[in-house]
Amino acid sequence: MDQDFKDMDSEGRWQNLYIEIRNQSHECPLKVAKYPENRNRNRYRDVSPFDHSRVKLENTENDYINASLVVMEEAQRSYILTQGPLRNTCGHFWLMIWEQNTKAVIMLNRVIEKGSEKCAQYWPTQDEHEMSFRDTHFLITLVSEDVKSYYTTRVLELQNDKTGEKREIYHFHYTTWPDFGVPESPASFLNFLFKVRESGSLGADHGPAVVHCSAGIGRSGTLSLVDTCLVLVSPAPSHL
User: Fold this and answer.
1) Quick check: pTM over 0.85?
2) pLDDT of res. 10
3) Rounded to a whole number, what is the distance in angstroms from the first to the last CA of the chain?
4) Selected catalytic residue, list 28, 119, 213, 229
5) Is the torsion defined by CA of 234, 235, 238, 240 positive or negative?
6) Domain range for 127
């Protein structure tokens, strides 16, 4: 793996590889995302999940959400990569988390970036403490919040109002990764990733972790790929 990387880098083949993968992706249909009734569920017109890997909502009339299941079999990792929820899809977002038995949400963007809303405020702040989503019957309560210099960790209580069942969800929020940019330092990024790992949320005991930024492809894909690569190169017999 190390030699392959060095060869790719020294020969300048990254751009060619990107074009090859992009061309292959054109063979995968993404019809459902383009249905008229689903257009207002997409944050960006040019970012849609493939039909074969999209996450399907179960207990709702329309099963569409802009989210994709990514399975890394060799690393025994699964992630759900999704866009920053829109104001009209926050309820769908929490329904997906409930149905997929997700333990952690990993947020890699700010709500507002460069003066534009990149994500709806889908979790309660300390001022309001609770948020209710009547369309999907979920109540979200802020249990705790730990603010660090470059990330914030929250514990949320997710309650299904139909059944009364409650679950504890971790919310890991990296706050210093600019859109179309890179984290301030590799150390801070890795410390954040290891904090997520320590929670056990990426393990096979839970459903896929939900990873999102604004579009759900750049920063989200990078974190998932870095985590997967670290698993594959680690000599340890088991991984958090």
Assistant:
1) yes
2) 84
3) 22
4) 213
5) negative
6) 31-233
